[in-house]
């Protein structure tokens, strides 16, 4: 089960004795509900830690980590930390090796794009390892197949080629940094390709914190907005880009923005649509020719 928001007051707490819990990362988002620092958000997310139930945590800032560590200690919950108790590494053949507390899985592949998904995969494998110790064994072949075939809509999801079009639901600074790493890897492996960003966000999100890590990675930006009252307008977004010298274009309707981006791209270029799951929902609904978004509903 996945927590909806935060953790301390989430409905998933009706499950009082899960086999294990996980908190993959801590970033600044939903501050109006969770607090304005990573420590405050960690405290809210730490609400899913149950007495005596193992908890897996991923990469995060030291302050957030210490908050979770204190909660786990107070509740006598064993804590497994990525980089200390388990790790995942890539070999030169782009295969992954997971080294856990008691398990070693080699020659793994992950169906999700982006190096940050390796950390998520490591946390998932640590959860399975922890559950195995609690009596729920998962066959090794099922683990390999599940990791290889996993899909997740709106997470570096490819929806077109020549040019490549990817959707990514990143909408906060931490997620923007992860997306930037993917774009940097793409640029290294495709040195003659341009990256065009189609960008739309909600008005209540940190637009500057989101766009700053991405600007060094992109060649051109097309501004748009989701069909929602909460959306930042293209004028709002343009005001965030006053210091950027690259080309900026506008198309209020999301599919018009994608059309503009495609008209500007060469077949070997990359178009990345990001900034809001609501924006991605509009794009996916239009691409599928329906009014119902598979992401937004």
Would you give an account of this structure?
Strands 7-8-12-9-10-11 form a six-stranded mixed β-sheet, sandwiched between helices. A three-stranded parallel β-sheet has the order 1-2-3, sandwiched between helices. The protein has helices spanning 31-34, 38-45, 62-74, 116-133, 140-149, 173-189, 207-211, 234-240, 254-264, 277-287, and strands at residues 21-23, 55-57, 79-81, 87-90, 96-99, 104-108, 157-160, 164-168, 195-199, 220-223, 248-250, 270-274. The protein has ten helices and twelve strands. It starts with 20 loop residues before the first strand and ends in a 10-residue tail after the last helix. It folds into two domains: 11-149, Mur-like, catalytic domain (UDP-N-acetylmuramoyl-L-alanine:D-glutamate ligase, 3-Layer(aba) Sandwich), CATH 3.40.1190; 157-287, Mur ligase, C-terminal domain (Protein-Tyrosine Phosphatase, Chain A), CATH 3.90.190. The mean pLDDT is 90. The protein is α/β, with parallel strands linked by helices. The relative contact order is 0.10. α2 (38-45) packs parallel to α3.
**What is the correct CATH architecture of the largest domain?**
3-Layer(aba) Sandwich
Question: How many β-strand runs?
Answer: 12
**Biggest sheet statistics:** 6 strands, mixed
Sheet/helix structural class = alpha/beta
**Residue share in β-strands:** 15-25%
Q: Could you name the ranges where pLDDT drops below 50 across 5 or more consecutive residues?
A: none
Strand order of the largest sheet: 7-8-12-9-10-11
CATH class of the largest domain: Alpha Beta
Enter the CATH topology name of the largest domain. UDP-N-acetylmuramoyl-L-alanine:D-glutamate ligase
N-to-C SSE series? EHHEHEEEEHHEEHEHEHEHEH
Query: How many domain regions?
Result: 2
Mean pLDDT: 90
Q: Portion of residues in helices?
A: 25-40%
Spatial extent as radius of gyration: 20 Å
Number of helical elements: 10
Give the overall silhouette.
Answer: globular
- What is the distance, rounded to the nearest whole angstrom, between the alpha carbons of the first and last residues? 20 Å
């Amino acid at each position: 089960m996945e927590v909806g928001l935060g953790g301390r007051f989430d409905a998933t707490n009706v499950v009082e004795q899960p086999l294990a819990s996980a908190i993959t990362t801590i970033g600044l988002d939903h501050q109006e509900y969770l607090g304005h620092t990573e420590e405050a958000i960690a405290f809210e997310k730490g609400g899913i830690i149950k007495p005596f139930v193992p908890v897996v945590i991923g990469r995060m800032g030291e302050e957030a980590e210490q908050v979770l560590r204190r909660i786990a200690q107070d509740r006598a919950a064993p804590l497994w930390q990525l980089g200390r108790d388990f790790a995942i590494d890539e070999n030169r053949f782009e295969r992954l090796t997971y080294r856990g507390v008691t398990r070693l899985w080699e020659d793994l592949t992950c169906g999700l794009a982006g190096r940050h998904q390796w950390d998520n995969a490591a946390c998932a494998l640590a959860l399975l390892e922890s559950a195995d110790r609690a009596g729920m064994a998962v066959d090794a072949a099922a683990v390999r197949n599940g990791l290889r075939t996993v899909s997740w809509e709106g997470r570096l999801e490819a929806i077109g080629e020549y040019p490549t079009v990817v959707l990514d639901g990143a909408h906060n600074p931490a997620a923007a940094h992860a997306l930037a790493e993917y774009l940097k890897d793409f640029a290294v492996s495709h040195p003659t390709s341009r990256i065009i960003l189609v960008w739309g966000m909600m008005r209540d999100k940190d637009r500057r914190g989101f766009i700053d890590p991405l600007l060094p990675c992109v060649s051109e930006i097309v501004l748009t907005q989701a069909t929602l009252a909460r959306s930042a307008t293209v004028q709002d977004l343009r005001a965030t880009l006053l210091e950027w010298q690259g080309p900026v274009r506008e198309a209020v309707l999301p599919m018009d923005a994608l059309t503009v981006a495609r008209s500007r791209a060469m077949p070997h270029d990359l178009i990345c649509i990001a900034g809001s799951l609501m924006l991605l929902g509009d794009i996916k609904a239009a691409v599928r020719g329906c009014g119902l978004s598979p992401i937004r509903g």
